[in-house]
Amino acid sequence: xxxxxxxxxxxxxxxxxxxxxxxxxxxxxxxxxxxxxxxxxxxxxxxxxxxxxxxxxxxxxxxxxxxxxxxxxxxxxxxxxxxxxxxxxxxxxxxxxxxxxxxxxxxxxxxxxxxxxxxxxxxxxxxxxxxxxxxxxxxxxxxxxxxxxxxxxxxxxxxxxxxxxxxxxxxxxxxxxxxxxxxxxxxxxxxxxxxxxxxxxxxxxxxxxxxxxxxxxxxxxxxxxxxxxxxxxxxx
Length: 236
Ligand code: 9D3
Description:
alpha/beta; five-stranded parallel sheet; two-stranded antiparallel ribbon; 7 helices; 9 strands; elongated; binds ligand 9D3
């Protein structure tokens, strides 16, 4: 899968893809990520990418010409789905990540300033995505979030076979898809803080029952919305 990221701050992306699962997926040839400076698609001396909003108001708006040229250039020889990161977008979640992981090539356009000229949105953008209801400074961090969530869904990106479907939000059977159960590792007693006895015993049926109970308990308390559209869990 290939990602093209269009931004006025290409330097931000030095680093976030150099570690962990994403770096490994790139090294394995599973993923290719190219960063593009939007200013390279300007044609004026000042390489201007923004301008004042028609009708007045605070802040600046991203000019249409550089964005049209960037997207047209990037799709000239190969097709791609172009995706604008914007607070007006549909909410990103695991379901959207799964959907995007089925696409061969994504162009991620990072918005900045107060927004993007609507003619870009209507004519060269295929999809608009927000990562949540909080105010960020631009689409760069959201683009990193989308890449990370999508890459780890690609076959071969995550090492251990079943660890992908066991994760929170994966939506498997019964209690999978709820929040994670609490996890512990050695030492069994740290400063008098003991690991729950059941986990030390090696009774795997009992351990599974305890984990399921804890996952349901935590989800009921913190994220009851995750039970929406699910059959109520049976006691145990
Ligand atoms: C909705 C806020 N806008 C009201 C005047 C101003 C505004 C705030 C932040 C306009 C643009 C931005 C920059 N944010 C993004 O580009 C962005 C974003 C976000 O702020 N939150 C969650 N997801 C995203 S994706 C892109």
